[in-house]
Amino acid sequence: FEYKIRFKNIVRLKGEMMGSKTPVRVGMIGYKFMGKAHSHALRDVPFYFDQGVTPVLQAVAGRDENGVKAAAEKMGWNSYETDWRRLIERDDIDLIDIVTPNNTHAEMAIVAAEAGKHILCEKPLALTLEQSKRMLEAVKKAGVIHMICHNYRFAPAVQYAKQLIEEGRLGKIYHMRATFLQDWNMDPNFPLIWRSRKEISGSGVLGDLGTHIIDLARFLVGEIAEVSGMMETFIKKRPLGDMTSNLRPQIDGDAWGEVDVEDAAAFLARFENGALGVFEVTRFCRGNRAGNRFEINGEKGSIRWDMENLNNLQVYLEDDERGLQGFRTINCTEVEHPYAGAYWPAGHIIGYEHTFINLMVALMDGIEKGYSPSPNFEDGVRNQAVLEAVIQSAETGKWMSIPRLLE
Ligand code: SOE
């Protein structure tokens, strides 16, 4: 078949080098909020990091031709498609990056895997556990590299927290409490965007934000064994809105619709290693724009992190001299802090967008060396199992254990 590359055709054959580097030609499906974050990150990877492979922004796909063309031009993509299947079919694409709403992830990822493309998929992996398992099966069968986009674990301070825990600096872990609090949905006239419609999003705030703190919990503390959850929908009807829009939607006419997903969720968790977790996610916490925070307490120390201050890690170590004991604030911008040394001299902070750059660096490393970096689709499936258990627990009022899925 024939496809058109509409402008700036810099197509390279697979394996043809760019200088000393092998290009990884990316095809991204979707181009709004996450499309912007991913495009920026892909462009910046070679700016800061030296790897044997380098991403090329080959083509972006979207249904609205004017929209996708403008996005391609603005964000630096070499070409565009108006049909995601065409994008996946193209033989000048090595990696498919899925940044579309949740209900499209499974189909796109399975088609991409069958076409032999590596895949990066936005969170949550799918609408259901069953769908996510099919996605994992497809990538395993195809032998492609896969990753899910949980960007927060790529903040240098979070990576450093992981290092401290692995070195045993906190000792045995007893507690994790984490929140992700927002307030963009509180106005009763805020329309029903796709994030508040079950058929598109799978769940409400749980799949949107809960999935992020579950990822942090699994990364830092370990697997979750059982959960007890509750969920609430505070506003049951909303005006219908522009479904394609992100967080600043237009209201479409006078029609109203039922809200069939939760505005808030909270759950208790028992980790396999005996630690206890308390988690809360909500869109109804006035003044909290992105209150993604955690504290972890171990026998020898504690750590705290807050994404609105993402370079800093607060660390308390019981071994400190009495009198000097207390939480110290580590600004994780030193060369000792993972990823940080690639950017600026110490003290020169980085931001939200750098968490995506670091994630892309991990992905490029996986593609170069032939492994699927964590968080990958296995993590996505385990994460989805926790989400599903919280929903079932909220419905039944019972503790739910997490199936030992992948053993
Ligand atoms: C909206 O709630 C949102 O953009 C999420 O979808 C993102 O995953 C989170 O990082 C920030 O908030």
Automatic annotation (TrEMBL):
Domain GFO/IDH/MocA-like oxidoreductase: 158-304
One Pfam family cited in the UniProt record for this chain: GFO_IDH_MocA_C3
Keyword Oxidoreductase: yes
Keywords: Oxidoreductase
GO molecular function: nucleotide binding; oxidoreductase activity
Occurrences of domain Gfo/Idh/MocA-like oxidoreductase N-terminal (ranges): 24-148
Keyword Cytoplasm attributed: no
Domain of life: Bacteria
Name the UniProt record assigns to this protein: Oxidoreductase
Organism in which the protein naturally occurs: Collibacillus ludicampi
